[in-house]
Amino acid sequence: MRIQTLEMSGISKAFGAVQANRGISLRLSGGEVLGLLGENGAGKTTLMKILYGLLPTDEGEIRINGEPVRFHSPRDAIARGIGMVHQHFMLVQNHTVAENVALGFPAAPFFFPAREVARRMQEFSRRYGLAVNPRARIWQLSAGEQQRVEIIKALLAGADLLILDEPTSVLTPREAEELFAVLRRMSTEGHSLIFISHKLEEILSICDRVVVLRRGEVAGAAAARAVDKRELARLMVGRDIIFNLERKKLEPGPVVLEVENLTVAGDRKAAAVRGVSFRVHRSEILGIAGVSGNGQRELVEAITGLRRPASGAVRLAGADVTGASARVIASKGIAHVPEERIRFGIVPNLFVYENSVLKQHRSRLFSRVLFLNYGSIRAHAATLVKDFSIAAPSLNTPVRALSGGNIQKLILGREISGEPSLLVAAHPTYGLDVGATEYIRRQLLELRERGTAVLLVSEDLEEIFELADRVAVLFDGRLMGILNTAEASMEEIGLMMAGIFPAEGDAS
Amino acid sequence: MEKVLLSVAVRTLVAGTPLLLGTLGEILAERSGVLNLGVEGMMAIGAVSGYLAALGSGSPWLGLAVALVAGMAISVIHAFVSVTLKANQVVSGLALTMLGLGAASLFGKPFIGRPLPVKLEAVRIPLLADIPYLGPVLFSRDAVFYISVLLGLVFAFLLARTRWGIEVRSVGENPAAADAAGVSVSGRRYLCTLAGGALAGVAGGYLSLVYSNSWMEGMTGGRGWIVIALTIFALWRPGRAFLGAYLFGVIFVLQYLLQPLGIPPNLLGMMPYLATLAVLVAGGLRADHRQLAAPAALGEPFSK
Amino acid sequence: MRLRLESLPAPSSGRKLAVLALSLLAGFAAMSIVFAANRVNPLFAFKEILLRSFGSLYGLKETVTKAIPLILIGSGLTLAFRARFWNIGAESQLLLGAMAATWVGLTWGGRLSAAAILPAMFAAGFLAGAAWGLIPALLKTRFAVNEVISTLMLNYVAAELLTLLITGPWRGASQRGFPYTEPLAAAAKLPLLPGTRIHYLTLGIALAAAALLYLAIYTTKFGYELRVIGENPEAARYAGIDFLRTSVVLMVVSGGLAGLAGVGEVAGIHHRLTYPGVISAGYGFTAIIVAWLAKLNPLGAVVSGLLFAGILVGGDAIQISLGLPAATVQVFNGVLLFFLIMGDFFVTRRVKIVGAA
After folding, report:
1. Cβ of A265 under 8 Å from any chain B Cβ?
2. Which residue of A has its CA nearest to B167?
3. How far is C290 from chain B, CA to nearest CA, in Å?
4. Is residue B27 within 8 Å of residue B34, measured between CB atoms?
5. Cβ-proximal residues to A118 (8 Å cutoff; 6+ apart), any chain
6. Is the pLDDT higher at B65 or at A44?
7. Which percentage of chain A shows pLDDT scores above 90?
8. What residue spans define the domains of chain B?
9. Burial of C220 by CB count in 10 Å (0-12 exposed, 13-18 middle, 19+ buried)?
10. Reduced to 3 states, what is the DSSP secondary structure of residue A288?
């Protein structure tokens, strides 16, 4: 039974003290593409998790074709024709594509399910243009291909309505176009789509209607043709989200970091970074752009001492630090704001003041031979809290009680308080709300003015253009080119991100 | 000479069967993501309850059945603590071992050294048992041996080529993905932990009913721990469990074989444990290979 | 009617203490079943245990005596467990310490004064236990060998080694074929508090160790790194903390302390070596619960060590008077540990009964 109408009315959901959804109502007709717009934390994912049966709702009801439905688990939602493609893929890395697809496929036979699934996949490839090798292991696939697996999973399970959560966050511009083509075909075939995103451009290009969420409530809804970016932005945030960040024109100073012909092995593949060379100067921000998974992580780890390069050199102010341990590199003045701040950057159960010296605990400021000097540590923590406007109930609060933005401020403050010569910042504003994002970006610019060299790894091209003087693009472990942000165009960068060398020369 | 070799072969199979059973069970549990360190305790409980049931009823099969149920019953506690309460699986397993070993000691005390008047008869498979040399060794064994081999093959098939196997393996690799696909993570984990417990119980029952035909203090002798090491050695694949189980079966048998050579019995007694260390070190030398084989979510509780 | 779980991210100390007490009570309650099954009145049994362990002067003395190895090993384990290094091999580390001390004592005991030989025995015991504890640490960092299994395997190896020695080269000529070594010379025997079996030197070392470890965890760089590793190993890697060095140090300490316990048992209680089960008496395993009950706080290990020593003493007493087998204590250990873990669940979660939604 196809889904002609979907109605969610009065949906409310709270997690402890946080009201994630409050009285949300929306409607969708068969074949329609609905955009769900909102910034991080607005409640979009929670709402969709409720629709998909992953979470129970506190209040409100869902009706399909006029009938009220109640989902206790994804199984129920799947049975009713709702499928979800998650932002963070729910795929088993070690298994093959066919095995992953078989996992969510109720009609797969008990014996030799992979064979049957492979057969069905061929049919889909014809109809929607979704082609993937069923025998490949997930870890061997690119992000775009993995996403295709997720879509196939949902369709095979009988999805009539497909929810896509931030689908382009891991795609190159070209892959995103391919995805949109597939989605348009699905829409013509009568499938309904809910497209969650915080990117205004995309929402307007693919969706029929848009619903804007802000702080857990519906801030507004309209047909895509009837609104423009500014209006949507205002609904999303309550004000214009054009940052007032000014990047002053500065003369870059002497070379601080020199990476020469660096090759780094990945966890499984042979080389994640291949022969990469670049330099970062004082008073300069060099951005590393590229879709996640093209070697950025390994490059950062090699520079910060968490991974040994296979060949090549890393030099800090002329001194060779290739292959040095994280401890040594930190002591030489390289600061590191890690990607996945909660996983790598803090110890959640320890207190705020204990986390304020996570890498610096060995320095003479905070320790004496064997012992830690808690007096100076607390003073340092207090200074950080004040200087960086960190909202923490007290220095003795476990740091996991802080919000993402405040945790990031603590990490950033901690790292730059030692006046490093180089700061490596990996996806520093990922997952942060608008206020925190603006703050962090401003801090990075100020650092640049004070003379620090900054290596900024980011997937957000907007951020790179805003902050970086030059941008280097990584694709498949290779440096595709380095351009001045003042002269480069999004198109060029987009091409490089997809593995295509630009026609004109570069500026390294 | 060949008589000795054949006798060694037979005793190897008998010594290896409880190890095989235990390893198959542990592989299942760990593949679903649950680390069960209580195998030693479950084996002990299986050994004593199997022995007592057989003694009381005169039927070795009843003994094995009781051993199976006893092992499974104890593993429910571990499953509850690990899956539902999401507690530390290492400590839970250790507590279970203490409990199991202590309880087995408690119940078995009055019966130490009393031989079991009943035996599990060898089952001759017609035709196959007539093959020279191999025949009497492989095809004239007790029924549990055949069952253990069959189970190994069945598990290998189930895990690799059925939908159930994909679900179980996914629960152990990426429980969030399995959950999103509508598979009950707790359900699979409970099932696999209980199956592991049942097999550990039968393994223990086999020890007291077939291997040594009596009850003694410390009868399990660390086999439960060896099973855990063998699980790693088998790279979590039932097919490879055969290799490890019978290899250690040989080692246990060698202990007795080499005694007349004048080697101090205590030195021989160290063999299985040193061999376990050697096996783990060898596995660690190929660290990358092993790391990729371990279920990614092993030992980690899953919360939505 | 449904049950709903509420998360409490920052539980108060009061709550933690209450949960601990309730868990213990629940454990005791569960043990009642075991008593009842053995046709013993549980209340009578508990009363007996309490009286025999803390209710009489003799009992108190015995309790303190048994607490010495438990505090030594238990405080060392709090260190190891904080870094999630599951040292299950304290039994054998104790035995190695005992063996080293015996060797020193038998070889030079007759020729040196107590002031010389006793420190030598303690040093030898510490080194032997530390060395034995170092093996699994190196195996783990170098070869990624699971430390639960390696420490356990070494338990069996050490037990066989000891049995080999006492039935072979170390068997006392005067022991008429029994598996004992010669008794230690008078100088190699630890002095006892008069009228008791308390070898107070070891007791002093135990209390000092607990206090020092507590300070180490909360005031030193090493303690900080230990806590980071235990709470978030990936952040520890990011911060450049050296796992190898940390594992080595903590196993040297944990193994060494267990070794010291072994010295105490040999030089203070038995005065000679005999079967492994007699020398280590399950202290290595019981200390695991001591550490866990103390919530991995070394000072807490002093209290929980005394508590468990009392259970052991009381347990011994009722074993004789009520005819319960020795394994009862082991069952009790397991049951209690279970209830402790189950109790942990409720420290950060509250169960609420909600009406039909």
Report:
1. no
2. A103
3. 13
4. no
5. A98, A134, A135
6. B65
7. 41
8. 2-293
9. middle
10. strand
CA distance C279 to C277: 6
Contact between chains at C7 and A16 (C-beta distance less than 8 A): yes
Residues B286, B281: Cα–Cα separation, whole Å: 9
Angstrom distance (rounded) from CA A443 to CA C33:
65
| 3-state SS, residue B255 | helix
Q: How far apart are CA A6 and CA A161, in angstroms?
A: 9
Quick count: other Cβ atoms within 10 Å of Cβ B1? Answer: 5
Structure tokens at A47: 């709402």
Rounded to 5 degrees, φ, ψ at A422 are: -135, 135
The 10 Å Cβ neighbour count of residue C150 is 27
pLDDT-derived band at A503, boundaries 50, 70, 90: low
Residue C227 contacts A, CB cutoff 8 Å: yes
> Which chains are within 8 Å of B by 3+ CB pairs?
A, C
Q: Which pLDDT does position A502 carry in this prediction?
A: 64
Q: Which residues of A21-37 are buried (b: 16+ CB within 10 A; e: fewer)?
A: bbebebebebbbbbbbb
DSSP β-bridge partners for residue A289? A473
Q: What is the mean pLDDT of chain A?
A: 87
Residues of C in contact with A350 (CB under 8 A): 227-228, 231
Q: Evaluate whether A505 touches A490 at the Cβ level (below 8 Å).
A: no
pLDDT the model gives residue A268: 66
A neighbour chains, 3+ CB pairs within 8 Å? B, C
Does residue A431 surpass a pLDDT of 80?
no
Assessment of whether the complete model's pTM goes beyond 0.90: no
| Nearest C-alpha neighbor of A195 from the set A185, A180, A178 | A180
Q: How many CB atoms lie within 10 A of CB B197?
A: 34
Rounded to a whole number of angstroms, the distance from the CA of C112 to the nearest CA of chain B is: 33
- Beta bridge pairs of residue A315: A258, A320
As annotated, the residues of chain A forming the CATH 3.40.50.300 domain(s) are: 5-237, 255-344+418-497
> Does A428 lie at the interface with C, CB-CB under 8 angstroms?
no
Residues facing residue C213 across a β-bridge: none
**DSSP per-residue codes, B243-281:** HHHHHHHHHHHHHHHTGGGT--HHHHHHHHHHHHHHHHH
- Using the Cβ of A56 and the Cβ atoms of chain B, whether some distance falls under 8 Å is answered with no
Q: For chain C, say whether B274 makes contact (Cβ under 8 Å).
A: yes
Banded model confidence at residue A260, pLDDT cuts 50, 70, 90: very high
Nearest to B78 by CA among B295, B301, B235: B301
Return the CATH number of A5-237, one of 3.30.70.1490, 3.40.50.300, 3.40.30.10, 3.90.1150.10: 3.40.50.300
- Report the gap between the CA of A359 and the closest CA in chain C (Å): 5
Q: Is B176 on the interface with C (CB under 8 A)?
A: no
ipTM entry? 0.87
Residues A62-94 have pLDDT tens digits of 999 989 999 988 888 888 999 989 878 889 998
- pLDDT, mean of residues A239-245: 59
Q: Do B102 and C334 touch (CB under 8 A)?
A: yes
A-chain CB neighbours of C7 within 8 Å are: 16
Q: Output the furthest CA–CA distance in chain A (Å, rounded).
A: 73
Q: Which residues pair with A211 in a beta bridge?
A: A36, A221
Selection from A90, A63, A89 nearest residue A161 by Cα: A63
In the prediction, which pLDDT does A300 show?
Answer: 95
Residue A470, classed as helix, strand or coil, is: strand
Structural fold of domain A255-344+418-497 = Rossmann fold (3.40.50)
Q: Which two tokens stand for residue A342?
A: 């909660």
Rounded Cα–Cα distance for residues C265 and B13 (Å)? 42
The CATH code of domain B2-293 reads 1.10.3470
Q: Quote the pLDDT of residue C356.
A: 57
Chains B and C form CB pairs within 8 A to the count of: 133
Q: How close does chain B come to C332, measured CA to CA in Å?
A: 7
Look at residue B217 in the predicted model and tell me its pLDDT: 85
Low-confidence ranges of chain B (pLDDT < 50): none
